[in-house]
Each structure stands twice: as C-alpha cells, then as structure tokens.
Amino acid sequence: MENAAQIGLFGAAGAAGRSIAHALSTAGRSYRVIGRGRQALQASFGHDPLAEVFTWNPDDPASIAAAASGLQTAVYLVGVPYHQFEQHPLLMQKTLDGLRAAGVQRLVLIGTVYPYGRARNMPVTESHPREPHTFKGKMRLAQENLVIDAHGHDGLETLVLRLPDFYGPGVERSLLHGVFEGAAQGTRAQMIGPIDVPHEFVFMPDVGPVVERLSRTPEAFGRVLHLAGAGTITQRDIAERAYALAQREPKRMVANKTMLRIMGLFDPLLREMVEMHYLLTDPVVLDDSALTRLIGPVGKTSYEAGIAQSLTAAQRAVRQAGGAQAA
C-alpha cells in the first residue's frame, strides 16, 4: 500500500500529538495516530486523509505490536495521571517490547526537564548531570534510561527530545492555561507562583516541525537533544499582555507552595504539584544549540505572537461554550 503510514504517534490525543500530526500532514506524510479512545482521535484527526486512526491497550503486548505493525518510526507521547508517575517506566518497557516485536526501526521519546533535578548552571545543555531529587523526576529518568539503553539493540535506534514547559492555543495542560482562560472570561487568572521569576515556555505548535524534521534525520538517533523556548519571560508579564490584548485589567489569584499544600488536601493534582514547585522558583532553562547545529535554524514563535494566538483560542472556546449553553 503506497500511502501506508510509516510514522506512528503513540498517545496522539494531546497537544503535542496534534502539533506533530499537523507538521506531518503539512509535509505530505501519511501518519498513524494511536490512543486508547477512538472518539477523541477521530475528532482531532478524522478530517485528515493522511491520518490513520488506531486504538491500543498499552498494557497488552499484542495490542502494542499490532498498533506498531508496519511502522518505521514511533513517536512516544503517552501521558499518565500526575499521581501515577510510576507507570512511566512500566509502560515504556512494554512499548519497547512491542516495537521490537513489530520490527520498528526508530523511536522518538518526547521528554521533559524533570530528570535533571535542580540546575547546577544555566542554560542547561544535554551533558548536565541527571540527578533528580523528586519521585516524578526519578520515574522520568527511568523512562529515559530505558529508551537510551535500547538504542542499537534489536534493530532499534532511539532519540530523546527534551522540552521545557509548554503553552499554546487550546493547550489545557499548561501552567499558563488559567491566564488565557481568565483573560478571555474576564475572571481572575488562576496561577501558581512565584510569577516574577524568568521562565521558559515552548510554543506547542513549534514542536511539530522539529519532530517531523528529526524523524527523517538519521544522525539525530542515538542522542538526547533539547528544544528550548523563545527565551525567558515571567508569568506576570504573560498575564499582563494577555489581559491587555483582551482589553481588560489584569486579575490574578496566585497560589504559592503553602497554598498548594493546603489545596492539595482536597485536590490530588495540586497535591502532586508540590514536589515540582522548585521548577517555578529555580526554573531549568535549556540550551538547544546542539539541535540547531544538527538541523539548522528552528522556527520559534515570539511570546508576543504566542500569547495572542493562545488568547484568541481561549476567547473562541468561551464563545462556543456560551453558544452551547444557549442552545
């Protein structure tokens, strides 16, 4: 079958999956989107004739191998609940076994800064020690090590691409989601402080073109690479810009670490965020010069443009919600 997908996105239903799928489609490449629920995948990708929708059960070896059948490259984007990070290495091992069984040749893991722990110097290059002091960092480290150690065995080549915190239009699982939602609704932005420390965010639509390029760059495999954001900015600055664009006065509700602990008594997600709070007081800022040396200049959306696009998407969501309620 000439148009058969050669690249598959495992855990495609999230923001990163949508970004990578869009880049693949723009490049005219057929791709397979793999997730637990067909309905969500169909809603996001069913309109694209280049997309092949496939469901899987990541706990079932036969299901993993079937989802990977015929693929040359797998991109791993599988998320787990924030309070179940011990699943990361377990699911990664099962997926690696399934990829090998299916004869997949390349694997790209989209990773995070969690395995580094506290930054010893800035910006952080790929040679920085990986010494996480948090449980989540240790689980992500174990996941990464499985992928790194798999390179060169059983015909599989692997690559880890680490990203900082991300944001973008319709990206709900972002530290900044409450800012755009608040600016769009005219309510208080729900934020986690401190909000005056320079932080790095990658604009999610910028991720897809990089992954698409790396997936067809043989010399990228057997490595760990960084994709950095468009410099640093404070959360306060982002909020002020978003509310100004919405022609509203900024309103904020900022939770500090102590408040997170208290709110965590009632909200498991917030409780799990306490141990990662160090990334707000001492952010990890990435150096991605190795990536640009490998593939050339990387397109990065300015914060000004990214904030505007994210706010527009949030305003559209508010209008749609209002229309649905009226109906």
TrEMBL record:
GO molecular function, one term: aldehyde dehydrogenase (NAD+) activity
Signal peptide location: none
Entries under SUPFAM superfamilies matching the protein: NAD(P)-binding Rossmann-fold domains
Coiled coil: none
Pfam families: Epimerase
GO annotations of cellular component type: cytoplasm
The NAD-dependent epimerase/dehydratase domain, residue ranges: 10-217
UniProt xrefs under PANTHER family: NAD(P)-BINDING DOMAIN-CONTAINING PROTEIN-RELATED (PTHR48079:SF6), PROTEIN YEEZ (PTHR48079)
Protein name per UniProt: Epimerase
Source organism (scientific name): Paraburkholderia largidicola
